[in-house]
Amino acid sequence: MFLQSFQLVVKRIFVVTALISLSSGAAWAGRYKVLYTFGRLASIPSSGLVVDGAGNAYGTTAEGGYNNAGAVYQLSPTKGYHIIYAFSGHPDGKHPQGNLAIDSSGNLYGTTIDGGAFTKCDHGLGCGTLFRLTPPPNGQGRWTETILYNFSGGDDGAGPQAGVILDEAGNLYGTTAFGAQTNQACQTGCGTVFDLTPSESRWTLSVLHTFSGDYFSDGGVPRGGVVLDVAGNLYGTTSLGTVFQMSPVLGGQWSFETIHRFSNTDGGAPFAGLTLDESGNLYGTTSGGGKFSFGNVFELSPGDNGWAETVIHDFAGGSDGANPQASLVFDPAGNLYGTTSQGGGKGNGGGTVFKLVPMGSGQWAEYLFRFASKPDQGAMPTAPVLLDSVGKVYGTASSSPGVIYRITQ
């Protein structure tokens, strides 16, 4: 499999064994390895890794490519690292961000914050795109990009930052952080939730919700994506401090409900999407607020009287990590994994990878890996991690030029 073998063919490898003692919990004994260091052709990874059925991993970089517009890369168990598509900005998109989605045919779907056919947004950089990359026949030749939608910055929104998700029917769901309604809270637009539906000849975008920017209503500026439950409900966050649920109703309409508003003491400014467990509980991170103002990890549980929040961990800064910006991942044992973009050392620190283990009675134990803030080891992880079947942790660190890493537990 890719997750056990690709390091044999990827060059530029750095290894360090780490045993990290924590003031707030136990130690995480782990072996850290840099699997790839990005360079001039593609740099600053802007997503985590996703894996296809053949064991190939894919991700995006915000820079590199043509006109420094970013790229999509592949890590193969047999061929190693290579760029499969380089963006040029206009009309094909600029600065991809957010995890890619993969369908059963091996097509990749993603978003770019800038670029595309409409240039009025982001000081002329563009309003963003939703794209598909189709693999070459028999694995030989080039990948083909298709722009499925160009955001205009009008009612349809602008600046999608979180990628998209696929449902079983092949529909795509996502958010735009900007565009649509504007006010003092969000002068470049408060953002939208959308879906993109395929037909024989084209893809059609529908705006499912337009945010108002009002904290006491629906919030606004969603920087994270959405997650879909088995009943077809969508859940997400807005960086203005809310968590929402959307449910399909008759006639293609969707209901919208704000199910939690952060008060800053329990967290603030969630930048990432949510993670569902089998019982329908939601888990997420806030980039700020909380007990020490460095963000937290939270759980929202449904009940007869609405949703109840439990703060699982408040980040304390310093050696404990600070300012998480990525969504969480469960392992089969129910442990949670995530990253903090800062903390873990002196000053702002280089960031951390954390593991939260449920101990019963609502208590969680924290295990932490700290980035050393050295150029050859990577720093500032802002994307979610990927777990393999034997518990190895894979991810990207975005501090220029950026790295792909693995932690063996």
- CATH topology title: Methylamine Dehydrogenase, Chain H
Indicate the overall shape: globular
User: Gap between N and C termini, in Å?
Assistant: 18 Å
Tell me roughly what share of residues is in helical segments. under 10%
Based on CA atoms alone, the radius of gyration comes out at: 20 Å
CATH architecture classification: 7 Propeller
**H/I helix tally:** 1
On the 0 to 100 scale, the average pLDDT is 91
How many runs of DSSP E, i.e. beta strands? 31
Major sheet characteristics? 5 strands, antiparallel
Strand content: 35-45%
Indicate the low-confidence ranges by residue numbers. Answer: 1-27
List its salient traits:
409 residues; five-stranded antiparallel sheet; 1 helix; disordered N terminus
Write up what this structure looks like.
- By secondary structure, the chain is mainly β.
- The chain has one domain (2-408): 7 Propeller (Methylamine Dehydrogenase, Chain H).
- It contains one helix and 31 strands.
- It has one helix at 2-5, and strands at residues 14-20, 28-37, 42-45, 50-51, 57-64, 71-76, 80-86, 94-96, 101-102, 108-114, 129-134, 144-150, 164-166, 172-176, 192-198, 203-210, 227-228, 234-238, 242-248, 254-261, 275-276, 282-286, 296-303, 306-314, 329-330, 336-340, 352-360, 363-370, 386-387, 393-397, 403-408.
- The chain starts with a helix and ends with a strand.
- 50% of the residues are buried.
